[in-house]
């Protein structure tokens, strides 16, 4: 990034050169926060096509190029001019160039110009549309909608006024209605302010199914305004990813059962009596060789004992399926799925075995990729909500006895002004830094999950008591206060409110423990106020 700010005359010259070189380009006025402003008259008179229906230059580029746009904008703020090559959402198959010029000395704004040979006269710059994922709904004691946020239209297709007065059960998929009723009745029995969470399929107005994680907060004891406040989070993408994992695993099982790539038969002494051509190529063996010797020679050292035990076991009647590393000459390490089945005579005596070997390297990589998509938040790399709750359930229910489980709930203070001032890309960058700081500070074996927009939860095992849990929370706040994020020439320092809950081994419920930590966090927020989410240094 350049350190020298161009003089106004030099910036004027760059601006004039861009107008002369790109008469068919698009032009927009940008404020200090990176968002578009109305074009000054002088800029309108240039004859360039005005950028419309977009909030920022960032929203016009494909997601993979967002970092390029952010870096160019930061350089323009510092040096006065900058540019970058990007793919536009409106024309993703061609490169366009984004120019930024500081014209605050003349027009009071920065100027953004988009040029490129692929910007046809009829092209309209379409910004990326961000669909909301969360809506808040208020319900009566009998689950009738009394109020719902405008986001419901994007999520389920209904206007808020159309749902007021309707029973929420009518929105739930018929197969999930019994679970919805059970969760509602459970929530009714909880103390004032408690919450219950349930995952339900809902019916979109057009007939589609949309998955929501619904958190019902019980405020029915409020004498002035008895109600249930439901936070409905769209988890459809997460559920699709989990279903893809299940489908991929089922597909792999069926493939290895029905489409063997290599087949070998052995006698009761383990010597090969038959192998097809693929098997001969894969294990470099022939009839009469000992199968154990042939497989172990190419198996990865770490897997040799398991392979040997499986081969010995099948010759005593123990069928086995396993996956192991196989060194294939010229192709590196492959993952092999081996299905071993014993052969017996009419009396049940083992006479040999059939071994089916399938190369599942690509399937293993796909399984790993899908597992990561279903487990981790794409932006921060933290566990997603479902994986965080699963980790907490495991910590509470594991057979490996430990001291206890701590839950630390963090909520960034006043995070919205960051997006408003610096743009969502800056907010995303801050969230990523916060996540990295938290992961570096939790104890070994703990996980950090992102369960909401700016909400994080740490799940820690083997925590000796509440005092130990509080120390972990203090360590996380210390790590967070040490985080530094460079945005727009400023160093930003995040702040958060934090709540801690602890349960000894063998006790506690995941929903209850999360609710306790959540309540403790909000108690801190109410006591200390929603302090700024960031401070400026430098």
Description:
This protein has helices at 8-21, 41-44, 66-79, 152-156, 160-163, 177-188, 236-258, 277-283, 291-298, 304-314, 361-375, 385-397, 416-422, 424-441, 466-481, 510-528; strands spanning 26-30, 36-37, 49-50, 81-88, 91-103, 109-115, 134-139, 145-148, 195-203, 209-219, 227-234, 262-267, 272-275, 320-328, 332-344, 350-359, 404-412, 447-450, 455-460, 485-487, 490-494, 496-504, 534-537. It has 538 residues and is of the alpha+beta class. The chain has 4 domains: 8-115, Beta-Lactamase; 134-239, 2-Layer Sandwich (Beta-Lactamase); 259-364, Beta-Lactamase; 376-536, Reverse transcriptase/Diguanylate cyclase domain (Alpha-Beta Plaits, 2-Layer Sandwich). Strands 1, 2, 3, 4, 5 and 6 form a 6-stranded mixed sheet that branches. The chain has a 5-stranded antiparallel sheet with strand order 8-7-11-10-9, sandwiched between helices. Strands 13-12-16-15-14 form a 5-stranded antiparallel sheet, sandwiched between helices. Helix 7 (236-258) packs antiparallel against helix 11 and helix 14 (424-441) packs across helix 15. The longest helix has 23 residues, at 236-258. It starts with 7 loop residues before the first helix and ends with a strand.
């Amino acid at each position: 990034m350049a350190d020298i700010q161009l003089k106004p005359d030099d910036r004027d010259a760059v601006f004039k050169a861009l107008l002369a070189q790109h008469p068919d380009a698009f032009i927009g006025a940008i404020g200090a926060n990176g968002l578009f402003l109305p074009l000054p008259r002088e800029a309108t008179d240039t004859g360039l096509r005005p950028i419309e229906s977009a909030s920022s230059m960032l929203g016009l580029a494909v997601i993979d190029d967002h970092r390029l746009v952010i870096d160019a904008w930061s350089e323009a703020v510092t040096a006065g001019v900058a540019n970058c090559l990007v793919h536009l959402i409106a024309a993703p198959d061609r490169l366009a160039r984004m120019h930024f010029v500081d014209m605050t000395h003349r027009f009071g704004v920065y100027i953004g110009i988009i040029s490129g040979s692929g910007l046809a006269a009829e092209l309209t710059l379409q910004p990326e549309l961000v669909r909301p994922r969360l809506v808040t709904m208020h319900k009566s004691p009998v689950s009738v909608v009394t109020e719902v946020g405008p986001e419901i239209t994007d999520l389920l297709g209904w206007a808020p006024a159309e749902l007021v007065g309707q029973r929420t059960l009518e929105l739930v998929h018929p197969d999930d209605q019994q679970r919805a009723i059970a969760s509602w009745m459970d929530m009714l029995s909880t103390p004032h302010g408690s919450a219950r969470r349930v995952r339900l399929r809902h019916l979109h107005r057009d007939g589609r199914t949309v998955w929501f994680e619904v958190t019902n907060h019980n405020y029915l004891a409020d004498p002035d305004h008895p109600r249930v406040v439901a936070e409905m989070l769209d988890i459809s993408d997460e559920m699709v990813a989990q279903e893809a994992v299940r489908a991929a695993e089922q597909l792999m099982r069926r493939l290895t059962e029905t489409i063997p790539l290599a087949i070998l038969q052995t006698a009761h002494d383990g010597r090969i009596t038959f192998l097809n051509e693929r098997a001969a190529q894969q294990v470099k063996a022939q009839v009469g060789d000992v199968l154990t010797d042939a497989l172990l020679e190419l198996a990865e050292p770490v897997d040799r004992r398991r392979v040997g035990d499986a081969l010995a076991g099948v010759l005593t009647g123990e069928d086995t399926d396993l996956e192991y590393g196989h060194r294939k000459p010229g192709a590196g390490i492959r993952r092999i799925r081996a299905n071993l089945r014993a052969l017996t005579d009419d009396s049940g005596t083992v006479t040999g075995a059939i071994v089916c070997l399938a190369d599942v390297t690509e399937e293993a990589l796909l399984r790993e990729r899908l597992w990561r998509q279903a487990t981790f938040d794409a932006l921060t790399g933290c566990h997603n909500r479902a994986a965080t709750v699963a980790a907490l359930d495991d910590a509470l229910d594991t057979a490996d006895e430990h001291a206890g489980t701590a839950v630390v709930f963090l909520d960034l203070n006043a995070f919205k002004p960051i997006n408003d001032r610096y743009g969502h890309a800056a907010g995303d960058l801050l969230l990523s830094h916060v996540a990295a700081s938290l992961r570096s500070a939790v104890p070994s074996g703990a996980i950090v999950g992102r369960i909401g927009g700016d909400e994080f939860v740490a799940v820690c095992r083997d925590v000796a008591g509440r005092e130990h849990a509080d120390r972990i929370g203090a360590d996380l706040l210390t790590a967070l206060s040490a985080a530094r994020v460079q945005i727009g020439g400023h160093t930003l320092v995040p702040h958060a409110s934090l709540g801690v809950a602890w349960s000894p081994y063998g006790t506690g419920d995941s929903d209850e423990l999360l609710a306790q930590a959540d309540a403790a966090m909000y108690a801190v927020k109410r006591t200390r106020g929603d302090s700024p989410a960031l401070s400026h240094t430098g």
